[in-house]
Design a protein that fits this description.
This protein has helices spanning 3-8, 20-30, 65-71, 82-94, 113-117, 126-130, 154-163, 197-200, 214-222, 257-268, 321-332; strands spanning 10-15, 35-42, 49-50, 59-62, 75-78, 98-101, 132-133, 148-150, 176-182, 205-207, 230-236, 243-250, 274-276, 294-301, 306-313. With 341 residues, it is α/β, with parallel strands linked by helices. The protein has an eight-stranded mixed beta sheet, sandwiched between helices. Strands 10-11-9-12-15-14-13 form a seven-stranded mixed beta sheet, with helices on one face. It binds NADP nicotinamide-adenine-dinucleotide phosphate. NADP nicotinamide-adenine-dinucleotide phosphate (NAP) binds at residues 15-22, 41-44, 46, 63, 79-82, 84, 102-104, 153-154, 185-186, 188-190, 315-316, 319-320.
């Protein structure tokens, strides 16, 4: 590559590069033709060293705001815990950087929901109105000029991709039941006995029913209105990665397979990372794990008055890092698939 190419490349930093999502992000961005990775950071308490043992060529530095400023990034990915992103993103925006945040710190529009669902008050609640919710397939021009992108949660991505094309036909008087199962990497790399091998192996359990912070995000982005009875139940699968959501909905009037297929085709015909299976075929985790793709299948029931929809993706990719790169590509005017296929 000649010097002018290098100069025109986007200067990118990743904070949280040593985490599960951050390491995926590092690996993807390292093969991005239009990017210069100018800095990778772990937390300030971790010594300088490889991002992960599998990526020994990428060295992460202990985080400090001075080191980040010195690297002069134009765009910063935050693959950090919610409170860390909430504190850091405003500082970076004030310095003129653009931010793609993989945490939930900027996903909810209503500031008063943060103490309840996330356990902290937002210091800069005005940014919640500015943040672009980066469910890429539903973003149009807004990513191009976005300063702050709130990358969606992994469970919400699987559910919203499955339901958004059908909201026009969903009966809001019947429960919309979203029964989702995630591999254990969804919890990040923190040490916790609940995520230990001994607790997970041979086990399967539901958790945080009625209290999971992805629930308000799903409600907000479904746009079904406050009264629609949406039920979200998360489960912990004894696998490393992948999410499978089984979603039960009723329709206001009987639907045909063709009508549902048409609705999905309208939504995703030009979406490079969403694949809708023929009616009656259901997707499986193994076909999407380690890919940036979501897959959706459906089965009509009860004369077309109800449907079961199954949606699968890799929580660390379409549920986190690869969706963040789709958003980055759109923000910078690069092909959406750059570095992803
Ligand atoms: N895991 C998923 O499937 C998934 C999916 C969608 C979104 N997310 C969200 O993405 C974010 C990252 O998730 P993850 O699962 O990748 O987390 P993780 O594996 O726990 O990694 C967290 C990263 O943040 C760094 N970090 C922690 N505190 C920091 C601080 N004060 N300053 C700078 N860096 C700090 C950690 O550095 P050390 O290595 O030094 O600890 C590590 O690199 C979270 O907000 C999570 O909710 C995760």
């Amino acid at each position: 590559m000649n010097e002018s190419n290098v100069k025109s490349r986007k200067r990118v930093a990743i904070v949280g590069a040593t985490g599960y999502s951050g390491a995926e992000l590092t690996a993807i961005m390292a093969r991005h033709a239009e990017v210069e990775l100018v800095a990778l950071f772990s937390s300030s308490s971790t010594a300088r060293g490889p991002v992960t043992p599998t990526l020994p060529q990428f060295i992460a530095e202990p985080f400090s705001i001075d080191a980040l400023i010195a690297a002069q990034p134009e765009i910063v990915f935050l693959a950090t815990p919610n409170e860390v992103s909430a504190g850091l993103a405003p500082q970076l925006l004030d310095l003129g950087m653009r931010v793609i945040d993989l945490s939930g710190a900027f996903r909810l529009e209503e500031p008063s929901m943060y103490p309840t669902w996330y356990g902290f008050d937002h210091e800069r609640p005005n940014l919640l109105g500015e943040a672009v919710y980066g469910l890429t397939e539903y973003c149009n021009g807004e990513l191009k000029n976005a300063r702050l992108v709130a990358n969606p949660g992994c469970y919400p991505t699987s559910i919203l991709l499955a339901l958004r094309p059908l909201t026009f036909a969903i009966d809001r008087e019947q429960p919309v039941i979203c029964d989702s199962k995630s591999g254990v990497s969804g919890a990040g790399k923190k040490a916790d006995v609940n995520f230990s091998f001994a607790e997970l192996f041979g086990n399967f359990k539901a958790y945080s029913v009625g209290q999971h912070r992805h629930e308000p995000e799903i409600r907000q982005q479904l746009h079904l209105g406050d009264r629609a009875p949406v039920v979200f139940v998360a489960h912990l699968l004894p696998v490393h990665r992948g999410i499978l959501s089984t979603i039960h909905i009723g329709f206001t009037h009987p639907m045909s397979e063709q009508q549902i297929t048409d609705a999905y085709t309208r939504a995703y015909d030009h979406a490079p990372f969403v694949r809708v299976l023929p009616a009656g075929q259901l997707p499986e985790l193994k076909n999407v794990v380690n890919t940036p793709r979501a897959e959706i299948g459906f089965q009509l029931l009860h004369g077309g008055r109800r449907a079961v929809i199954v949606s699968v993706l890799d929580n660390l990719l379409k549920g986190a890092a690869s969706q963040a790169v789709q958003n980055f590509n759109r923000m910078c005017g690069f092909p959406e698939t750059e570095a992803l296929i």
